[in-house]
Design goal:
Blueprint: E1 17-25, E2 28-36, H1 47-63
Antiparallel strand pairs: 1-2
């Protein structure tokens, strides 16, 4: 998975922790474990997830 040891929240200035993150898109909900801020809840979504898994889910949902 993602090496989040050096990731910190730019708003809260605390280390990110692995968290379940829920996404909603076109009426569908899916989740992924991503680094996120334990204070404000902001999630870090790495480029490989955005261009890979999320892009394929987006394409599948838009084709329906």
């Amino acid at each position: 998975m993602i090496d989040n040891r050096n990731l910190t929240c730019c708003k809260c200035n605390v280390p990110l922790e692995e968290r379940k993150t829920v996404f909603n898109y076109l009426g569908h909900t899916f989740s992924a474990d991503l680094p996120g801020c334990p204070i404000c809840g902001m999630a870090f979504i790495p480029e490989e997830i955005v261009k890979g898994k999320m892009a394929s889910v987006e394409t599948e949902l838009e084709e329906k």
